[in-house]
């Protein structure tokens, strides 16, 4: 039910902390089975009718990305003490829907070797599950999100059937890249997208606004409000602006989630089971804030690994200009990529994927809003600066490192007086060597295309993809992991951690489909426990 009341509910089966994709999927699946579910989220419930206004805000250079979804510097305060600066608030949303409100929407499955990195590549660790264990849940997740994709990727892991929707057609700039890649023997293929290529699940097909990241006004791109609304339609209670301060607990189980309302009231939501689905930063932070005599180093932290092994994907990119039209920004998302080099990974060079950008260079709207010229002068500048840009991007794996972690900065507090998260991000040489390898391939493609290379994101200028992973890793040994393969914590009988924080390694694929598959699998585990 859509609720504006903020008092705790009675006789609750499951309390879910976090209304992003992981929490929303678990809540919907359990509510559909008749369980009484309460969802608590730190951020607001955004009005879908405001999305066109948010789109306009995103286009105007006076606003940065956090402003599009009402970022709050005090609420979202953090520090970054690692060797690599981490701009956490550049790309995160607190609110109903979470990061899917502003994500790009690419949804690939991890490859088989990603689950056995130590065994197959000699680097990182093995997952306690195999690809085959997750394969049926990947299929369910694709149905739940609504994925448009093709069967043309010869490097993808085995599938059990086609995607729910047909793929998007290649863009005009894809056709330019295709000629160059054919000459070089590089395979291109379609990219699975969690956006509708046709009407699906009561939502419209993509209408090509082109502002997918950071806002889709049409609802064609999936976001987690889909499953929050489904959970509410089956009786779940969802409370926004209810940041959980700590998890009260005994020695073997969680007793209540303590949350604060906008009016400053403090409440305790009791439940039989608890699911923490706050992402790779806020999940370990909440556990660390829940320290007690039983758990002096943080809840569920007998291993000492809560917050450790923070990972992200690194960006590798090369761009330039052509002496012909490229029609960039006609499509606001990726339609073609290449996984050809992904499984060449070893202990020295990690997996990486290539992305052929449809949105290289500024759009006409961005150019028009960023200058002071008008009329013929503006048209002249548009003719000079728009229409001939190309770029190839890529994601690169970062291995888990114990000295890359999420901790607490006890010298700085948020709007509720809690220590803020400290992102201590360290990358490692293997990731930097992988970026060099990706750049080499990207340069070959652009040179074959006849482009003048004008920029490159290499080892010295790379940045994060804002995929927070690894801080409550999954494993079978309680001394070396935080959750078991079902995502139940080793230390607490009634607490599950769901989301990318459980990833033992990150691979180089966007994580949301794996998050969704693990969430569906965890919901089954929870139902069995209930």
From TrEMBL:
Domain of life: Archaea
Keyword terms of this UniProt record: FAD, Flavoprotein, Oxidoreductase
Domain Glucose-methanol-choline oxidoreductase C-terminal span(s) in chain numbering: 400-519
Xref: InterPro entries: FAD/NAD-bd_sf, GMC_OxRdtase_N, GMC_OxRtase_C, MIP_CS, P2Ox-like
A single MF term (Gene Ontology): oxidoreductase activity
The UniProt record lists the keyword Cell wall biogenesis/degradation: no
Cofactor: FAD
Residues annotated as domain Glucose-methanol-choline oxidoreductase N-terminal: 93-314
Family membership noted in the UniProt record: Belongs to the GMC oxidoreductase family.
Protein name per the record: GMC family oxidoreductase
């Amino acid at each position: 039910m859509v609720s504006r009341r903020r008092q705790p509910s009675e006789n609750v089966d499951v309390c879910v902390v976090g209304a992003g994709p992981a929490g929303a999927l678990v809540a919907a699946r359990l509510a559909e089975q008749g369980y009484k579910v309460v969802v608590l989220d730190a951020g607001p419930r955004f009005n879908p009718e405001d999305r066109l206004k948010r789109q306009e805000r995103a286009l105007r250079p006076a606003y940065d990305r956090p402003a599009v979804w009402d970022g709050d510097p005090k609420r979202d305060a953090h520090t970054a003490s690692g060797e690599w600066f981490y701009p956490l608030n550049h790309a995160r949303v607190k609110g109903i829907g979470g990061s899917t409100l502003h994500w790009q929407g690419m949804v690939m499955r991890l490859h088989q070797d990603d689950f056995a990195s130590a065994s197959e590549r000699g680097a990182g660790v093995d997952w306690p599950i195999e690809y085959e264990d997750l394969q049926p849940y990947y299929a369910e997740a694709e149905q739940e999100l609504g994925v448009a994709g093709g069967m043309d990727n010869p490097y993808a892991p085995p599938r059990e059937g086609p995607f729910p929707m047909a793929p998007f057609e290649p863009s005009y700039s894809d056709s330019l890249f295709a000629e160059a890649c054919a000459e070089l023997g590089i395979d291109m293929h379609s990219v699975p997208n969690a956006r509708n290529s046709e009407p699906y699940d009561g939502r419209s097909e993509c209408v090509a606004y082109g502002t997918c990241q950071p806002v889709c006004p049409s609802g064609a791109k999936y976001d987690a409000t889909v499953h929050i609304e489904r959970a509410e339609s089956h009786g779940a209670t969802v409370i926004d602006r209810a940041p959980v301060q700590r998890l009260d607990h005994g020695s073997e189980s969680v007793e209540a989630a303590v949350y604060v309302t906008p009016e400053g009231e403090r409440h305790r939501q009791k439940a039989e089971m608890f699911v923490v689905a706050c992402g790779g930063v806020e999940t370990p932070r909440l556990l660390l804030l829940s320290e007690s005599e039983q758990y002096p180093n943080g809840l569920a932290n007998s291993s000492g690994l809560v917050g450790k092994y923070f990972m992200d994907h690194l960006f590798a990119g090369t761009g330039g200009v052509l002496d012909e039209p490229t029609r960039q920004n006609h499509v606001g998302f990726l339609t073609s990529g290449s996984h050809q080099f992904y499984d060449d990974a070893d202990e020295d060079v990690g997996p990486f994927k290539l992305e052929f950008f449809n949105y290289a260079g500024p759009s006409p709207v961005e150019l028009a809003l960023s200058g002071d010229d008008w009329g013929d002068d503006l048209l002249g500048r548009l003719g000079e600066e728009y229409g001939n840009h190309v770029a190839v991007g890529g994601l690169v794996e970062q291995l888990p490192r114990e000295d890359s972690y999420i901790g607490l900065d006890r010298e700085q507090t948020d709007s509720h007086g809690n220590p803020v998260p400290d992102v201590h991000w360290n990358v490692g040489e293997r990731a930097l060597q992988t970026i060099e390898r990706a750049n080499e391939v990207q340069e070959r493609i652009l040179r074959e295309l006849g482009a003048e290379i004008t920029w490159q994101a290499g080892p010295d200028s790379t940045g994060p993809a804002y995929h927070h992973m690894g801080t409550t890793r999954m494993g079978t040994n309680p001394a070396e992991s935080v959750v078991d393969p079902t995502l139940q914590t080793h230390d607490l009988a009634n607490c599950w951690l769901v989301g990318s924080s459980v990833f033992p390694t990150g691979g180089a694929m966007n994580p949301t489909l794996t998050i969704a598959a693990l969430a569906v699998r965890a919901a089954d585990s929870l139902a069995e426990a209930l």
